[in-house]
Amino acid sequence: MQSTGTEHRRTPERRRDTLERLGAERDVWVSTAHPERGPHQVPLWFLWDGAAVWMCTGATSVTARNVRAEPRVRLALPDTFDVVLLQGEAECFPDREVPPDAAEAFAGKFGWDPRAEEGSFLYVRVVPKTVLAWRGEPELRGRVIMRDGTWLG
């Protein structure tokens, strides 16, 4: 995985690099919006299971309230040069109803199991419908690497 340089990558290379980063990164910026209160953005830990992004937040957090009211979200990996943006719809799972394999994988990655906490948590699953990836201006053209839930190239 390379995070500097301006060599133009083809779509298969962008896809490979994006999948590698999704498996390795820890944090993702989550952008939500409430129909009446507007946008909200927050970083959360995430797990990539090969098909979806899993995150966890307090059940009463702004993020939880927003995705319940408006499930469309945008996710961004935290690098402003090696950009990866994902768009999709959030599916919510209260901590007592999350699929066990997802919760165990999340706990295994971070050494923290929200299900064991006193407060209530909400697991949020996002299957990307669109993914964009680019490194600097030379890669702006062709930055869409997933459209309508299908990887390109």
CATH topology heading = Pnp Oxidase, Chain A
* CATH class designation: Mainly Beta
Strand order of the largest sheet: 1-2-3-6-5-4
The geometry reads as globular
Main structural class: alpha+beta
Q: What is the N-to-C order of secondary-structure elements (H for helix, E for strand)?
A: HEEEHEEHEEE
Q: Describe it for me?
A:
The protein is an alpha+beta fold and 153 residues long. The protein has a single domain, classed as Pnp Oxidase, Chain A (Roll). The protein has 3 helices and 8 strands; from the N terminus they run αβββαββαβββ. Strands 1-2-3-6-5-4 form a 6-stranded antiparallel β-barrel. A hairpin with a 4-residue loop joins strand 2 and strand 3 (53-58).
